[in-house]
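Sanity check

After download, print the first record. It should look like this:
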Amino acid sequence: MKFHLLGDENEKVEIGVVTRSHPNTTDYWDINWIDSIVNVEIPGYVVQFYASLRTDELSDFLHELKLMNRNLKGKAILSNLDSYIHFECEMDRLGKMKWSGKTCFPAGNGAELTFEFKSDQSYLERLIKELESILSVFPVIGNS
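Expected structure tokens:
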């Protein structure tokens, strides 16, 4: 299961969710970790690494994307507790979306890649559906 952040100039961020990191626990903080593969392809760079993300991070991002899609303005942020990834998307009044991203591997003190790209709001519906599909298989379990 994957979701994609797509740019107008062949930029692509693809995040694949593989499995829950700790499927046999009931603790909120442990059960909501998911093993993921991050792929970033921007002109001149290709990056791939494994990352531990959280379902609540994806859920918060999805909520902000839905608001942005409904209001045709705003900002959505996908920020990772372990600092593997940080993506921000801001939509202007004309429906253009500006993405800024930062990846770090190994998390916290590894190599960093910082980048920006633009895309059209037409990609937004697909991204929302991809995240909804992932969260239907890997829902947020419990309360913080």
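If your output differs, re-run the checksum step. Summary of this record's structure: The mean pLDDT is 95.
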